[in-house]
Design a protein that fits this description.
The protein has 33 residues and is an all-alpha fold. The protein has two helices and no strands. The chain has one domain. The N and C termini lie far apart (29 Å).
């Protein structure tokens, strides 16, 4: 597995939520804001 830094994980999460707003909204487990 890839060893990701905390900054990389945060950036990936931000990028994912940005590119997939519908998925983020439909997923109750994903905190919005």
């Amino acid at each position: 597995m890839l060893a990701l830094k905390s900054a990389d994980v945060a950036f990936f999460a931000f990028l994912w939520r940005t590119l997939n707003p519908k998925i983020a909204e439909q997923s109750p487990r994903v905190p919005r804001g």
